[in-house]
Design a protein that fits this description.
5-stranded parallel beta sheet, disordered N terminus, alpha/beta, 6-stranded mixed beta sheet
Length: 493
């Protein structure tokens, strides 16, 4: 198939043979549609929301979009491979490609990170990221989108248990060889499968009762400011934190807390919460900044894995992707990168198959795409279990030993460039967790056993002071505009 070919065939929606339907036009759905357009002559995206045409806008189906979002380096790489040039377009539109932790003031549970190179991270509003990716995906003539429409159930195949399409809200059936559910946290896939005679999957859930509260600010002048963002992490003895990122000509500040420490949504309480964090740095940055919005809350942050991949029977012609299958505590920033990893797994599975073979391989595809969630799930749940308020299966002895070791890794990563690079390689999902368990890394980590893992950190790091009082002459970090030579070579996706 020619990737850029335009669909000029006179198809109708009743012809399922070479037609795939993707439910949900978020990041997981968009990337899945891009991959499937390599093997299907028609791909239809079904989206419940009406989508903006003029530019990025908030939409009800992505309520978390008003809070800080990041795309880790592995996600940047994969999306660039699927949509060549999209990274540059995002940067031109106001996103920033930064080096984490070098370009941030970052207070970890152990201490302040030195200005070390770790991993690339793309910072931008969720609205901008999704709108830009959607524009690029819809350049493909094989992909069409129907907005303001939602699926209410699956259409059974002739055997009564396979999937042959979806039924839309107005009652209209839409025939398809393959249906992909990427509707996110509100997915009804479990109920739809039960209606076809398939059992409900087992569900694993960890909830640290994390809450967000976010607000936009005008950026105050400060010639001495040399950072591009800030992250004051929480830890079990003070489960409050805050993130500051730049979005165009304004700051987005997201406060966070667990359990009874969830941040406020009242205007007059926002700064007071920022002042209560482990460092005054975030409060100092905001106290002279002009608020541009009232705080907005988000509380639906539990880790939840619906184990469709474990079911003994699975219908041909149906796959569940993204948050619809496995969702994470968003504080670790892995959601969009996992969507890209799942799309990569999907691409590998369908690369040599025709549409009929893809439908028949749905069970294998479900298992392979679910595997993309394994590492970020381990990261999120292991870290969440450090907090006493977290509900979920308790950590076993092995997990507790790993938690202790990872606390040592964090303490070493604050100041050691080698440990920092490997730690952020794993956190960004670019490197496997075994990177941190190799003999050379373990020796390096354990050689720093004298470093405390939960000290009382200084108000500011040694390389930067309060507003107007820069301590060290660290070169300013400007958002990077990637040249084509710096980006991955395009491959068939």
């Amino acid at each position: 198939m020619d990737d850029d070919a335009t669909d000029n065939h006179p198809h109708t929606d009743s012809e399922p043979g070479d037609h795939a339907v993707v439910l949900g036009a978020g990041m997981a759905g968009l990337l899945a549609a891009r991959v499937l357009a390599r093997r299907f002559s028609r791909v239809t995206l079904i989206e419940r929301d009406e989508l903006p045409d003029a530019g990025p806008e908030f939409r009800p189906g992505v309520p978390q979009s008003r809070h800080a979002h990041i795309l880790w380096s592995r996600g940047v790489e994969l999306i660039e491979l699927m949509l060549p040039g999209v990274t540059g377009r995002l940067v031109e539109a106001g996103a920033s490609l930064l080096d984490s932790p070098r370009d941030f003031l970052w207070l970890s549970p152990a201490d302040w990170f030195h200005p070390l190179s770790g991993a690339k991270v793309l910072i931008g509003s969720r609205e901008l990221l999704e709108w830009t990716v959607r524009r690029e995906v819809l350049r493909n003539g094989r992909i069409r989108i129907r907005t303001g429409s939602a699926a209410t159930g699956l259409v059974a195949g002739p055997d009564g248990r396979s999937v042959a399409g979806v039924r839309l809200r107005d009652g209209e059936p839409l025939a398809a060889r393959l249906v992909v559910d990427a509707t996110g946290r509100t997915s009804k896939a479990t109920a739809w499968l039960e209606a076809l005679g398939h059992p409900a999957p087992a569900v694993t859930r960890y909830d640290s009762h994390l809450g967000y509260s976010s607000r936009y600010f005008a950026i105050p002048d400060d010639p001495g400011r040399r950072w591009q963002g800030m992250y004051i992490q929480s830890r079990p003895d003070l489960p409050r934190g805050g993130v500051l990122v730049r979005q165009g000509d304004r700051w987005l500040v997201t406060l966070l807390g667990n359990g009874e420490h969830v941040p406020p949504v009242k205007d007059e309480e926002f700064l007071a919460f920022a002042r209560s964090l482990r460092s005054p740095a975030l409060y100092d940055a905001l106290r002279d900044a002009t608020p541009l919005s009232s705080p907005t809350a988000f509380r639906n942050t539990a880790n939840e894995w619906r184990h469709y991949e474990r079911l003994e029977r699975w219908p041909d012609g149906f796959v569940v992707l993204g948050d619809a299958a496995c969702r994470f505590n968003p504080v670790y920033g892995h959601g969009m990168t996992v969507a890209a990893l799942a799309a990569e797994a999907l691409a590998k599975e369908v690369r040599t198959l025709n549409p009929e073979e893809i439908a028949a391989a749905a069970r294998r595809i479900q298992r392979r795409t679910a595997a993309a969630a394994a590492v970020p799930w381990q990261i999120a749940t292991s870290e969440d279990l450090r907090y006493p308020v977290t509900e979920g299966p308790p950590a076993g002895l092995g997990a507790r030993i790993l938690q202790g070791y990872m606390a040592r890794v964090m303490a070493g990563a604050n100041s050691d460039p080698v440990i920092s690079g490997r730690f952020f390689g794993v956190l960004s999902l670019t490197a496997p967790p075994a990177t941190l368990l190799g003999p050379a890394t373990m020796i390096r980590v354990l050689s720093k056993w004298r470093l405390p893992t939960a000290p009382d950190a200084a108000a500011y790091p040694a390389h930067h002071g309060p507003p107007g009082r820069t301590i060290a002459a660290v070169p300013a970090a400007e958002p990077e505009r990637p040249a084509r030579a710096d980006l991955p070579e395009s491959r068939e996706y």
